[in-house]
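Re: that backbone. C-alpha coordinates:
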Protein backbone atom coordinates (compact mmCIF):
# COMPACT_ATOMS: atom_id res chain seq x y z
CA UNK A 1 0.00 0.00 0.00
CA UNK A 2 2.74 2.40 0.98
CA UNK A 3 4.71 1.68 -2.22
CA UNK A 4 1.57 2.33 -4.26
CA UNK A 5 1.08 5.75 -2.67
CA UNK A 6 4.74 6.63 -3.25
CA UNK A 7 4.46 5.58 -6.89
CA UNK A 8 1.40 7.79 -7.36
CA UNK A 9 3.17 10.73 -5.73
CA UNK A 10 6.21 10.27 -7.97
CA UNK A 11 3.91 9.94 -10.99
CA UNK A 12 2.25 13.29 -10.17
CA UNK A 13 5.62 15.01 -9.81
CA UNK A 14 6.75 13.61 -13.13
CA UNK A 15 3.60 14.83 -14.82
CA UNK A 16 4.41 18.35 -13.61
CA UNK A 17 8.18 18.43 -14.11
CA UNK A 18 9.23 15.46 -16.22
CA UNK A 19 12.42 15.18 -14.11
CA UNK A 20 14.11 11.81 -13.39
CA UNK A 21 13.81 10.60 -9.81
CA UNK A 22 15.67 8.09 -7.65
CA UNK A 23 13.37 5.69 -5.81
CA UNK A 24 13.98 3.02 -3.17
CA UNK A 25 11.53 0.12 -3.13
CA UNK A 26 10.40 -1.86 -0.09
CA UNK A 27 13.20 -4.40 -0.59
CA UNK A 28 15.80 -1.63 -0.33
CA UNK A 29 16.76 -1.65 -4.01
CA UNK A 30 17.16 1.62 -5.90
CA UNK A 31 15.60 2.57 -9.24
CA UNK A 32 15.79 5.57 -11.55
CA UNK A 33 12.40 6.68 -12.79
CA UNK A 34 12.19 8.55 -16.10
CA UNK A 35 9.03 10.24 -17.37
CA UNK A 36 8.38 11.95 -20.70
CA UNK A 37 5.52 14.49 -20.21
CA UNK A 38 4.99 14.75 -23.97
CA UNK A 39 4.36 11.07 -24.62
CA UNK A 40 3.53 10.23 -20.98
CA UNK A 41 5.91 7.32 -21.15
CA UNK A 42 7.46 6.13 -17.92
CA UNK A 43 10.45 3.87 -17.39
CA UNK A 44 11.92 2.32 -14.24
CA UNK A 45 15.63 1.54 -14.54
CA UNK A 46 17.20 -0.60 -11.83
CA UNK A 47 20.37 0.78 -10.26
CA UNK A 48 21.26 -2.83 -9.42
CA UNK A 49 22.26 -1.93 -5.87
CA UNK A 50 20.83 -1.32 -2.42
CA UNK A 51 23.70 1.02 -1.47
CA UNK A 52 22.69 4.67 -1.41
CA UNK A 53 26.12 5.96 -2.40
CA UNK A 54 26.43 3.66 -5.41
CA UNK A 55 22.86 4.38 -6.45
CA UNK A 56 23.46 8.14 -6.31
CA UNK A 57 26.59 7.82 -8.45
CA UNK A 58 24.88 5.68 -11.07
CA UNK A 59 21.80 7.89 -11.06
CA UNK A 60 23.82 11.06 -11.65
CA UNK A 61 25.63 9.43 -14.56
CA UNK A 62 22.38 8.30 -16.14
CA UNK A 63 20.72 11.70 -15.73
CA UNK A 64 23.74 13.52 -17.19
CA UNK A 65 23.75 11.22 -20.21
CA UNK A 66 19.95 11.55 -20.50
CA UNK A 67 20.10 15.35 -20.50
CA UNK A 68 22.84 15.31 -23.14
CA UNK A 69 20.77 13.06 -25.36
CA UNK A 70 23.32 10.26 -25.06
CA UNK A 71 20.97 7.90 -23.26
CA UNK A 72 17.41 6.83 -24.02
CA UNK A 73 15.94 4.89 -21.07
CA UNK A 74 13.32 3.34 -23.35
CA UNK A 75 15.93 1.93 -25.74
CA UNK A 76 19.40 1.86 -24.19
CA UNK A 77 20.36 -0.59 -21.53
CA UNK A 78 23.56 1.15 -20.44
CA UNK A 79 24.62 4.80 -20.70
CA UNK A 80 28.32 4.18 -21.24
CA UNK A 81 30.50 4.93 -24.23
CA UNK A 82 31.97 1.70 -25.70
CA UNK A 83 35.58 2.75 -25.10
CA UNK A 84 38.31 0.13 -24.90
CA UNK A 85 40.75 -0.15 -22.02
CA UNK A 86 43.63 0.84 -24.30
CA UNK A 87 41.82 3.95 -25.55
CA UNK A 88 40.90 5.02 -22.02
CA UNK A 89 44.50 4.46 -20.92
CA UNK A 90 45.85 6.76 -23.63
CA UNK A 91 43.36 9.48 -22.74
CA UNK A 92 44.18 9.14 -19.05
CA UNK A 93 47.92 9.49 -19.66
CA UNK A 94 47.32 12.49 -21.94
CA UNK A 95 45.12 14.11 -19.29
CA UNK A 96 47.75 13.65 -16.59
CA UNK A 97 50.43 15.00 -18.90
CA UNK A 98 48.26 18.06 -19.52
CA UNK A 99 48.05 18.59 -15.76
CA UNK A 100 51.82 19.07 -15.64
CA UNK A 101 52.74 15.77 -14.00
CA UNK A 102 56.44 14.91 -14.07
CA UNK A 103 57.93 12.79 -16.85
CA UNK A 104 58.68 9.97 -14.41
CA UNK A 105 55.05 9.94 -13.19
CA UNK A 106 53.73 9.84 -16.75
CA UNK A 107 56.14 7.03 -17.58
CA UNK A 108 54.99 5.10 -14.50
CA UNK A 109 51.31 5.45 -15.44
CA UNK A 110 51.99 4.41 -19.03
CA UNK A 111 53.98 1.31 -18.03
CA UNK A 112 51.39 0.31 -15.43
CA UNK A 113 48.42 0.63 -17.80
CA UNK A 114 50.32 -1.23 -20.51
CA UNK A 115 50.82 -4.07 -18.02
CA UNK A 116 47.10 -3.95 -17.13
CA UNK A 117 46.14 -4.22 -20.81
CA UNK A 118 48.25 -7.36 -21.07
CA UNK A 119 46.43 -9.00 -18.13
CA UNK A 120 42.92 -8.73 -19.61
CA UNK A 121 41.44 -10.06 -22.88
CA UNK A 122 42.53 -8.11 -25.94
CA UNK A 123 40.10 -5.36 -26.91
CA UNK A 124 38.27 -5.47 -23.57
CA UNK A 125 35.83 -2.60 -23.17
CA UNK A 126 36.45 -0.54 -20.07
CA UNK A 127 32.82 -0.94 -18.95
CA UNK A 128 33.27 -4.74 -18.99
CA UNK A 129 36.14 -4.68 -16.50
CA UNK A 130 35.20 -6.66 -13.39
CA UNK A 131 36.09 -6.69 -9.70
CA UNK A 132 37.90 -9.99 -10.31
CA UNK A 133 40.09 -8.29 -12.96
CA UNK A 134 40.99 -5.55 -10.47
CA UNK A 135 41.80 -8.07 -7.75
CA UNK A 136 44.05 -10.05 -10.07
CA UNK A 137 45.95 -6.89 -11.08
CA UNK A 138 46.44 -5.75 -7.48
CA UNK A 139 47.62 -9.19 -6.34
CA UNK A 140 50.21 -9.57 -9.10
CA UNK A 141 53.18 -8.09 -7.15
CA UNK A 142 54.78 -10.09 -4.35
CA UNK A 143 55.54 -7.20 -1.99
CA UNK A 144 53.07 -5.16 0.06
CA UNK A 145 54.56 -1.89 -1.15
CA UNK A 146 54.14 -2.83 -4.82
CA UNK A 147 50.58 -4.06 -4.28
CA UNK A 148 49.76 -0.75 -2.63
CA UNK A 149 51.25 1.13 -5.59
CA UNK A 150 49.26 -0.98 -8.07
CA UNK A 151 46.08 -0.28 -6.10
CA UNK A 152 46.78 3.46 -6.03
CA UNK A 153 47.47 3.65 -9.77
CA UNK A 154 44.44 1.55 -10.67
CA UNK A 155 42.20 3.61 -8.40
CA UNK A 156 43.43 6.86 -9.99
CA UNK A 157 42.72 5.52 -13.48
CA UNK A 158 39.26 4.13 -12.68
CA UNK A 159 38.16 7.20 -10.71
CA UNK A 160 39.23 9.36 -13.66
CA UNK A 161 37.20 7.10 -15.96
CA UNK A 162 34.13 7.55 -13.75
CA UNK A 163 34.60 11.33 -13.78
CA UNK A 164 34.82 11.26 -17.59
CA UNK A 165 31.59 9.27 -17.88
CA UNK A 166 33.28 6.12 -19.20
CA UNK A 167 32.09 4.16 -16.14
CA UNK A 168 29.09 4.38 -13.85
CA UNK A 169 31.27 3.35 -10.93
CA UNK A 170 34.74 2.01 -10.32
CA UNK A 171 34.94 -1.82 -10.55
CA UNK A 172 37.32 -1.71 -7.60
CA UNK A 173 34.11 -1.97 -5.63
CA UNK A 174 34.69 -2.69 -1.98
CA UNK A 175 38.26 -3.94 -2.45
CA UNK A 176 40.31 -2.50 0.38
CA UNK A 177 43.71 -0.97 -0.16
CA UNK A 178 46.49 -3.49 0.59
CA UNK A 179 48.06 -2.98 3.98
CA UNK A 180 51.77 -2.30 3.88
CA UNK A 181 53.96 -3.53 6.68
CA UNK A 182 55.86 -0.54 8.00
CA UNK A 183 59.56 -1.25 7.92
CA UNK A 184 62.23 0.71 9.71
CA UNK A 185 64.16 2.74 7.10
CA UNK A 186 67.70 1.48 6.59
CA UNK A 187 70.46 3.98 7.34
CA UNK A 188 74.23 4.14 7.66
CA UNK A 189 75.94 4.41 11.01
CA UNK A 190 78.63 7.04 11.44
CA UNK A 191 81.24 4.27 11.24
CA UNK A 192 79.72 2.92 8.01
CA UNK A 193 79.73 6.34 6.40
CA UNK A 194 83.28 7.11 7.45
CA UNK A 195 84.50 3.75 6.11
CA UNK A 196 82.61 4.20 2.83
CA UNK A 197 84.05 7.68 2.31
CA UNK A 198 87.57 6.36 2.99
CA UNK A 199 87.16 3.66 0.33
CA UNK A 200 85.84 6.15 -2.23
CA UNK A 201 88.60 8.64 -1.33
CA UNK A 202 91.25 5.97 -1.93
CA UNK A 203 89.98 5.61 -5.50
CA UNK A 204 89.69 9.38 -5.89
CA UNK A 205 93.35 9.77 -4.84
CA UNK A 206 94.39 7.20 -7.43
CA UNK A 207 95.69 4.70 -4.88
CA UNK A 208 93.29 1.88 -5.69
CA UNK A 209 92.56 2.12 -9.39
CA UNK A 210 92.37 4.34 -12.46
CA UNK A 211 88.85 5.78 -12.04
CA UNK A 212 90.04 8.70 -9.92
CA UNK A 213 87.89 11.41 -11.51
CA UNK A 214 84.67 9.38 -11.29
CA UNK A 215 85.39 8.42 -7.68
CA UNK A 216 85.92 12.08 -6.78
CA UNK A 217 82.50 12.94 -8.24
CA UNK A 218 80.84 10.18 -6.22
CA UNK A 219 82.73 11.21 -3.05
CA UNK A 220 81.38 14.76 -3.30
CA UNK A 221 77.87 13.65 -4.18
CA UNK A 222 77.69 11.22 -1.23
CA UNK A 223 78.85 13.83 1.27
CA UNK A 224 76.41 16.41 -0.04
CA UNK A 225 73.49 13.95 -0.17
CA UNK A 226 73.96 12.55 3.34
CA UNK A 227 74.35 16.01 4.89
CA UNK A 228 71.31 17.60 3.19
CA UNK A 229 68.85 14.72 2.70
CA UNK A 230 68.25 15.74 -0.91
CA UNK A 231 66.76 13.22 -3.28
CA UNK A 232 68.96 12.16 -6.17
CA UNK A 233 67.12 14.33 -8.70
CA UNK A 234 67.19 17.34 -6.37
CA UNK A 235 70.91 16.91 -5.81
CA UNK A 236 71.76 16.73 -9.51
CA UNK A 237 69.56 19.75 -10.28
CA UNK A 238 71.36 22.04 -7.79
CA UNK A 239 72.86 25.23 -9.19
CA UNK A 240 75.76 27.20 -7.70
CA UNK A 241 73.35 30.00 -6.86
CA UNK A 242 71.24 27.65 -4.72
CA UNK A 243 73.91 27.73 -1.99
CA UNK A 244 73.98 30.90 0.09
CA UNK A 245 76.93 30.63 2.45
CA UNK A 246 76.16 33.94 4.13
CA UNK A 247 72.72 32.72 5.20
CA UNK A 248 73.99 29.21 5.93
CA UNK A 249 71.30 27.71 3.71
CA UNK A 250 71.00 25.50 0.67
CA UNK A 251 67.85 26.02 -1.41
CA UNK A 252 65.97 23.34 -3.33
CA UNK A 253 64.07 25.19 -6.05
CA UNK A 254 61.63 24.38 -8.83
CA UNK A 255 62.82 25.63 -12.18
CA UNK A 256 62.34 24.98 -15.88
CA UNK A 257 63.02 21.32 -16.56
CA UNK A 258 62.95 20.34 -12.89
CA UNK A 259 60.19 20.00 -10.32
CA UNK A 260 60.56 18.84 -6.71
CA UNK A 261 58.48 15.86 -5.64
CA UNK A 262 56.24 18.00 -3.42
CA UNK A 263 56.14 20.85 -5.91
CA UNK A 264 57.40 23.29 -3.25
CA UNK A 265 60.74 25.03 -2.77
CA UNK A 266 62.51 24.50 0.54
CA UNK A 267 65.66 25.52 2.42
CA UNK A 268 68.09 23.14 4.17
CA UNK A 269 70.74 24.21 6.71
CA UNK A 270 74.23 24.26 5.22
CA UNK A 271 76.12 21.89 7.52
CA UNK A 272 79.94 21.80 7.72
CA UNK A 273 80.04 18.74 5.47
CA UNK A 274 77.84 20.39 2.81
CA UNK A 275 79.82 23.62 3.09
CA UNK A 276 83.04 21.65 2.55
CA UNK A 277 81.67 20.15 -0.68
CA UNK A 278 80.56 23.56 -1.90
CA UNK A 279 84.00 25.02 -1.25
CA UNK A 280 85.62 22.10 -3.12
CA UNK A 281 83.58 22.61 -6.30
CA UNK A 282 82.93 26.36 -6.30
CA UNK A 283 85.20 28.81 -8.01
CA UNK A 284 85.31 32.49 -8.92
CA UNK A 285 84.58 31.74 -12.57
CA UNK A 286 81.48 29.62 -11.96
CA UNK A 287 78.15 31.15 -12.93
CA UNK A 288 75.20 31.18 -10.51
CA UNK A 289 73.04 29.17 -12.94
CA UNK A 290 75.73 26.51 -13.48
CA UNK A 291 75.22 22.98 -12.12
CA UNK A 292 76.87 22.58 -8.73
CA UNK A 293 77.91 18.96 -9.26
CA UNK A 294 79.32 17.86 -12.60
CA UNK A 295 80.78 14.70 -14.08
CA UNK A 296 84.51 14.17 -14.59
CA UNK A 297 84.71 16.19 -17.82
CA UNK A 298 82.31 18.95 -16.80
CA UNK A 299 79.20 17.33 -18.25
CA UNK A 300 75.90 16.59 -16.57
CA UNK A 301 75.84 13.65 -14.13
CA UNK A 302 73.44 10.92 -15.20
CA UNK A 303 71.31 9.59 -12.30
CA UNK A 304 71.72 5.94 -13.30
CA UNK A 305 75.51 6.33 -13.52
CA UNK A 306 75.65 7.81 -10.02
CA UNK A 307 73.52 5.03 -8.51
CA UNK A 308 75.52 2.25 -10.22
CA UNK A 309 78.86 3.74 -9.20
CA UNK A 310 77.64 4.23 -5.62
CA UNK A 311 76.53 0.58 -5.49
CA UNK A 312 79.98 -0.46 -6.70
CA UNK A 313 81.65 1.36 -3.81
CA UNK A 314 79.18 -0.16 -1.34
CA UNK A 315 80.39 -3.60 -2.44
CA UNK A 316 84.04 -2.55 -2.32
CA UNK A 317 83.51 -1.27 1.23
CA UNK A 318 81.96 -4.61 2.24
CA UNK A 319 78.70 -2.98 3.36
CA UNK A 320 75.20 -4.46 3.19
CA UNK A 321 74.16 -5.21 -0.42
CA UNK A 322 70.68 -3.78 0.25
CA UNK A 323 72.09 -0.26 0.71
CA UNK A 324 71.21 1.99 -2.21
CA UNK A 325 71.44 5.70 -3.02
CA UNK A 326 68.19 6.61 -1.23
CA UNK A 327 69.71 5.17 1.96
CA UNK A 328 71.69 8.40 2.20
CA UNK A 329 68.43 10.33 2.55
CA UNK A 330 67.26 7.88 5.22
CA UNK A 331 70.58 8.43 6.98
CA UNK A 332 70.06 12.20 7.05
CA UNK A 333 66.60 11.84 8.65
CA UNK A 334 67.66 9.04 11.03
CA UNK A 335 70.69 10.90 12.38
CA UNK A 336 68.61 14.00 13.03
CA UNK A 337 65.97 11.92 14.82
CA UNK A 338 68.64 10.19 16.91
CA UNK A 339 69.84 13.55 18.13
CA UNK A 340 66.39 14.75 19.10
CA UNK A 341 65.71 17.24 16.31
CA UNK A 342 62.05 18.26 16.25
CA UNK A 343 60.08 16.14 13.72
CA UNK A 344 58.53 19.25 12.18
CA UNK A 345 62.04 20.50 11.39
CA UNK A 346 62.99 17.15 9.85
CA UNK A 347 59.81 17.24 7.75
CA UNK A 348 60.61 20.77 6.58
CA UNK A 349 64.25 20.05 5.69
CA UNK A 350 63.55 16.69 4.03
CA UNK A 351 60.53 17.97 2.10
CA UNK A 352 58.21 15.19 3.32
CA UNK A 353 54.61 15.34 2.16
CA UNK A 354 53.28 14.90 5.69
CA UNK A 355 54.39 14.37 9.27
CA UNK A 356 53.30 10.74 8.92
CA UNK A 357 56.28 10.12 6.62
CA UNK A 358 58.63 11.70 9.15
CA UNK A 359 57.23 9.64 12.03
CA UNK A 360 58.82 6.44 10.72
CA UNK A 361 62.17 7.84 11.89
CA UNK A 362 61.05 9.08 15.29
CA UNK A 363 61.50 5.77 17.13
CA UNK A 364 65.19 6.73 17.09
CA UNK A 365 64.61 10.04 18.89
CA UNK A 366 66.12 10.48 22.39
CA UNK A 367 64.99 12.91 25.06
CA UNK A 368 67.35 15.69 24.04
CA UNK A 369 67.71 18.08 21.14
CA UNK A 370 70.54 19.00 18.77
CA UNK A 371 71.08 21.28 15.80
CA UNK A 372 72.00 20.08 12.32
CA UNK A 373 75.52 21.57 12.48
CA UNK A 374 76.37 19.13 15.30
CA UNK A 375 75.04 16.16 13.37
CA UNK A 376 77.09 16.51 10.19
CA UNK A 377 80.36 17.89 11.50
CA UNK A 378 82.28 15.19 9.63
CA UNK A 379 83.90 16.68 6.53
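Recovered sequence:
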Amino acid sequence: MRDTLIRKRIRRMHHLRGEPRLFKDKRGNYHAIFYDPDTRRRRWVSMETNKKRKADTRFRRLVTAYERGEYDPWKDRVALAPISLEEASEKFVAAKKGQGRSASTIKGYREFLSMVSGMVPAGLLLRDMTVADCQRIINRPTSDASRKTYYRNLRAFLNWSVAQGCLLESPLGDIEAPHQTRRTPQFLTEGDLEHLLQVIKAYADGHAGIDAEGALVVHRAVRLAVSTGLRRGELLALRCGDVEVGKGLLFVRNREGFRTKSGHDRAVPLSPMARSVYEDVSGHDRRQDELLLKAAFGSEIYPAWLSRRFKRFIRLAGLDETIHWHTLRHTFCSWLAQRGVDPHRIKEWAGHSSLTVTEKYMHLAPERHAIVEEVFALS
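DSSP finds 15 helices and six strands in the chain. The chain has three domains: 2-67, 85-163, 190-375.
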